[in-house]
Amino acid sequence: MLFDQFNNIPMLVKDKTLLYFPIMSPLKLFFLLLLILAVVIVTLCLLGIRTPNLAVAAGVTIAVFTGLVLLQKRRNKKKKQGHFERNGGLLLEKQLSAADGAIEKSRIFISRELEAATDGFNESRILGQGGQGTVYKGILADGRIVAIKKSKVDESLLEQFINELVIVSQVNHRNVVKLLGCCLETEVPLLVYEYIPNGTLFNLIQNDNEAESFPFTWSLRLKVATEVAGALAYLHSGLTIPVFHRDIKSTNILLDEKYIAKVSDFGASLSIAIDKTHMTTRVQGTFGYIDPEYFRSSQITDKSDVYSFGVVLLELLTRQKPIPSRGEGEDVYLGLAQRFQTSMEENSLPTILDPQIIDQTNEGEVIAVAKLAQRCIDWDGRRRPTMKEVSIELENIKMSRGGLTIQENYQSPSCTGEEAVVMIDVYDAWTIGSENVKSTSDAYAVLNNTI
């Protein structure tokens, strides 16, 4: 399992000797020195002690001050080194020295750089907040704008954060957000990413106010889908050790200044040795995007990312949320995937599509993507395509237009042969503790009753 490599990293040991002196800044120590020196001089004058002795007293005071400063520096250095080791710094240094390619371009920042870049992590610099931590907008000394991800002070999230650092540092793809470096000498690790200015795909899909200034056209939707599929195919098939993202969703897809898609947030991701077969685990992911087969069996496969990506395709096709909010319709307990499957089976696809994309000029492409999405969200993982197959099919759809019509009769996809299923080991982030839950729609009802 990936996290076995962290088992030997020494945890920060609290040194009891640090309790003997208060932690003070050099400026405070300087004023303390002046106070001590003033008290000593006044006392000696009152006692009538000769001037040479005042010089000796001043020297002693200065020596004490110097000792306190050196002691504090030593303590701070020891504390930072402890944080560095606990946050996986030794492992990362080993990788940086041994690896080639993208990882050697990453650098280790010092805390002062990032504090200055974010104006002391000022709240006005916050770009977003999530389960793992907060992302700040920063400006480095060389003028580069970056996104700095700061983990929450939570020991249970530390492994996820280090996991993200280790995985993303080895990935080099134009549609995966680029890691510029990290800082590990702070209490919680900091990751420094390229700054992506146009927010998330989720915001673009749901924000109707931008329709006039920036129309969310079908060609843009297809381009984004193709780019994300290419990134996932690369993670699954293009790396020496495959990576399963495990949390693909529209909020984890960022859009740069040219609206090029960037897959982000690898805290839940997993590297898997090629010779690994399977292992049972508890569920991790975002509700509405979780593969129902993974949900039922607790066995994660490469097809789990395919299912999640299929839900993203549905968002692009329908402009609806994976799980509707209360009051958004009669099918509040049915997820988008279930409602989409029903519309396909009942030959009523136009009723669920976003009206903006129903156009005679792109009808064939819309139908082809809808059929692909239906295969991606099949409840049987063996019948889903691989991400490589999805990527190739989307590229082909972009380059050709079919003669299909939206009223065409849709048949449930079938599997022409057994596909190899790779299963892997994961660790838990959250789980719904009910053995009687058999579907995601049932689970949603459970959540409504428990939240």
Summarize the structure.
With 451 residues, the protein is of the alpha+beta class. 41% of the residues lie in helices and 10% in strands. The chain folds into three domains: 16-86; 89-194, Phosphorylase Kinase, domain 1 (2-Layer Sandwich), CATH 3.30.200.20; 201-450, Transferase(Phosphotransferase), domain 1 (Orthogonal Bundle).
Draw up the topology in text:
Elements: H1 26-47, H2 51-86, H3 89-98, E1 107-108, H4 111-117, E2 126-129, E3 133-139, E4 145-151, H5 155-168, E5 179-183, E6 190-194, H6 201-206, H7 218-237, E7 243-244, E8 253-255, E9 261-263, E10 270-271, H8 292-297, E11 300-301, H9 302-318, H10 336-345, H11 363-376, H12 387-399, E12 423-424, H13 440-450
Helix pairs in contact: 1-2, 7-9, 7-12, 9-11, 11-12
Q: Which percent range fits the helix content?
A: 40-55%
Specify the structural class: alpha+beta
The CATH topology of the largest domain, please? Transferase(Phosphotransferase), domain 1
Strand content: 5-15%
Report Rg.
28 Å
Count of individual helical segments: 13
Strand order, biggest sheet? 1-5-6-4-3-2
So, the CATH homologous superfamily of the largest domain?
Answer: Transferase(Phosphotransferase) domain 1
Determine and state the CATH class of the largest domain: Mainly Alpha
The pLDDT mean sits at 74
CATH architecture descriptor text of the largest domain = Orthogonal Bundle
Catalytic activity: L-threonyl-[protein] + ATP = O-phospho-L-threonyl-[protein] + ADP + H(+); L-seryl-[protein] + ATP = O-phospho-L-seryl-[protein] + ADP + H(+)
Keywords: ATP-binding, Kinase, Membrane, Nucleotide-binding, Serine/threonine-protein kinase, Signal, Transferase, Transmembrane, Transmembrane helix
Membrane topology: Single-pass type I membrane protein
GO biological process, one term: cell surface receptor signaling pathway
